[in-house]
Amino acid sequence: MVKPTALFGSVFFASILVFTLAAGASAQGLALDGAGPINRAMGGAATAAPIDSIGAVLWNPASISGLAYSEVAFGLELLLPTENIASTISQGAFGPGLPSVNLGGSTSGEPGVAPIPSMAWVHKCDCSRWSYGIGMFGIAGYTANYPADLSNPILVPQSNQPGAIGGFGHVFADVQFYQIVPTVSYQLTDKLSVGFSPTIMLARLSADPLSFAAPDDGDGSGAARYPAGCATRYSWGGGFHVGLYYAANDRWQYGLSFKSTQWIEPFRYNTCTEAGLPRLEKVNVDYPMIISLGTAYTGFERWLLALDVRYFDYGNTAGFGDPAGYDAAGAVTGLGWNNIVSAHFGAQYRATERLLLRFGYEFNENPIDTDVVFFNAASPLICQHIASTGLTFFPTERLSLSLAYLHGFENSATGPMNLPGIGAVAGTSVTSRVSADALAFGANMRY
What we know:
Blueprint: H1 4-7, H2 17-21, E1 27-28, E2 31-32, H3 36-41, H4 53-59, E3 71-89, E4 103-108, E5 114-124, E6 130-146, E7 171-187, E8 192-208, E9 235-247, E10 252-259, E11 263-264, E12 267-272, E13 278-283, E14 290-297, E15 303-312, E16 340-350, E17 355-364, E18 385-393, E19 399-415, E20 418-419, E21 423-424, E22 428-446
Antiparallel strand pairs: 1-2, 3-4, 3-5, 3-22, 5-6, 6-7, 7-8, 8-9, 9-10, 9-11, 10-14, 12-13, 14-15, 15-16, 16-17, 17-18, 18-19, 19-22, 20-21
């Protein structure tokens, strides 16, 4: 095991794990709550409310049978997270034999604007019970860019001297998750439809440094450091998605869908040791199983109301559910996330024949407990309250243009630092704060 004294100059590297897995601040843990301006304006509620092809293909393959028309839809979202990381070390926190310091500070990141594309096509056969579709979505994406900061222990420039005070300096990470979803739905009766989608996953995860890999002391300085994790490629994966859609009458609709774990091939990194020798690292991270249950009501004149409840199986997902800690070589073993439930409410109001207004709200449980905050220290995956609004305008009978705005209200999480062989260190703390804003727009063409 790496000794605490040798690792002190790079101990704070462990919290880099959060940067390698950040997926977007307006999210259900890792997963974004929806795709496209219509679904996002509805708070992600779509399991029983098929009002556009993007939301229907994403959340319930059976619901494409409930669309009023065949259509092609395109969307682009611009997501801007606002994030801050703070850390403190009290005098003598690391005990005798280690440097006695009293430091504390906070630093804002510069993640920039992340573009998230979406597209879907659904074709309904006039003389058939079959409906077909395909969707391509950016379901998660994030960039972290923290500068080095001498006043913030976690961001103090890294040191290669045993016993010296050091953090990990600047932090950069770029994460992208895309999904391709060919979809088919069949109407068993006039009211009940079933749907199926094989799901194809494409993901890229890069970070510097990479704490899933063991630190090494290749230059013989006596202080081990984690390698960089930027020389990587896209990794492929997949799973499946099944659903039921039931239109009970002209007022009530119900939906249920099961999206399997998305099994992704190991992320591969061509990195090097401290001495510059080649080193190949692999990291196993999957995408969680998701169960969605929804209902929609159209009994009020001009209104559509939708409610979805979702369950995310993070606790049994590679990378996320693995216990947070260190292995014998000093590599971080996992994030230690819990399973969570999220609730999504959306309302659509037909103001005129050409104008639709939408409002949405989402609540998420936080998957990160206090005792594992350090391993998720700067995570932007803790937004619990998200509000949205939007509109759709019809320039013609078949063409519609949509716009949505979302705000993820600020949330924070705090916990102690955690060292290999020591555990939680009294007198230390790490706090992350995050909020987010997003603007989405797009076009739908019916035929």
